[in-house]
Amino acid sequence: MSELTEKVSKKLSSQYEQLNDNWEKIVKASRGLAFRVKSQSEKQLKELIEAGEKIESSNKSILEEIRASVSAPLTDVKGSANKARLATLGLLSRVIENGERYFGELVELGDKSSDRSKNQSQNRPNNKPKNSAHKAA
To answer: Which class for 116: exposed (0-12), middle (13-18), buried (19 or more C-beta within 10 A)?
Structure first.
């Protein structure tokens, strides 16, 4: 009976360790995703500002710019729909192919982000007030 108990215990212990490892990876991936979203949003904001500055400097109205950019793809609706379908299939295949690699990158990025925040918190000076030598009697 003790052999069976020992086998079950080892199996449960192994599964528990695997669960902990996977949980740590998910936490690190979420940190990496948050870091990547922040950096990408800053980059996209800069790009939007630059695009706005170009439109403003060209003295075109926003409506003219929208008409020019929207009218070209709509000239061939059937072709556009077929291209959209193919693009969706291509996107899905890329997601499947690169999903695991991307998850690994996010875990690594989250791990680095976690290390950085630990280092920053350790380097902060301790600002706790010191006990005064003069105590009220």
So the answer is: exposed
Q: Enter the tokens of residue 83.
A: 């291209």
Nearest in space to 34 (alpha carbons), one of 97, 99, 95, 114: 114
Q: What is the three-class DSSP state of 133?
A: coil
pLDDT in tens, 45-60: 888 788 777 777 777 6
Residue with tokens 């003790």: 2
The answer for 136, left when phi > 0, alpha when psi is -120 to 50, beta otherwise, is beta
Q: Classify residue 59 as left (phi > 0), alpha (psi -120 to 50) or beta.
A: left
Say what angle helices 2-57 and 77-123 make with each other, to 10 degrees: 110
User: What is the rounded CA–CA span in Å between residue 89 and residue 96?
Assistant: 11
Distance CA 21, CA 74 (A): 50
Which residue type does 28 have?
K
Q: What pLDDT score was predicted for residue 17?
A: 92
Residue in the block written with tokens 């009218």: 71
